[in-house]
Amino acid sequence: MSPSFLHEALISLFRDRPELAAEVLRDQLHIAIPAYTEATVQSGDLGQLKPVEMRADLVVLFKDGKPVMVVVIEVQLHKAAAKRRVWASYLTSAGAQYACDAYVLVVTPHEDVARWAREPIRLGGSSMVQVLVLGPETIPVITDAAEAERHLELSVISALAHGPHRPEVAFATIAALKGVNDAVSTLYFDLLHIVLPQAVRAALEELMIPGYQYQSDFAKKYYGQGKAEGKAEGEAMGEAKGKADAILAVLVARSIGVSDEQRAILLATHDLAQLDQWLTRAATCSQASEVFAP
Predict the structure, then answer these.
(1) How far is it, in rounded angstroms, from Cα 51 to Cα 87?
(2) Cβ distance 170 to 196 under 8 Å?
(3) Number of C-beta neighbours around residue 111 at 10 A
(4) What does pTM read for this prediction?
């Protein structure tokens, strides 16, 4: 499954229903939000000098006659040190542009990324800022179909974060979606079918349609790309796993301990050049953290 598909699909959950951003801040992150009468998606261009580098995934503006809150939504599937100062820039740029309270909301289905994103962003001296993070710890585990129907988009996010290990979460979401017949629910069906592991997909097909075919143009686009790239990606992933195994073997042979988080980062990395660099470091490092240093 293409990471770009998951990235774009998560953005679409908020784009299709902008009010979701306020609900997440209020109900999952316990932020006091102002009263509003309108929620609209705005341009993601938040920088004046370098608009390409300063383009947010999604910007939602809440109004009550005038702007009362702006939420910059960033979907993050892996750690990227350069993004942290960009998030800080989003906070100040969005607040200044709309003259209201601004928040950056980082959305990720991966707990290691969520922990990293929650760390304070140092700006210099004692100045620092902190973004809000919707990750597995703060994404509710929704297993009741009635609750999933009441909070449909949130239940989809719950299924993406928890469904791979707790199939009942995915089943509750599918049961809720079966009662909704529109283009949005079709997209959510497709999203879950593509993202969830094969074993869970097989069970879902019993609730959906055997031999399920993707219906939304969005999913067909990414599924077609995946088929065309699948063979090359499979070969690259195989080579990446071999390099990752070699790094672990070197560290074990040198009696250097590797934490579960470090092992997860290693096995999730498919950048061959990065893995080559880590392999070189593994041969001379005194502790595992030196291998993964920026």
Answers:
(1) 14
(2) yes
(3) 15
(4) 0.69
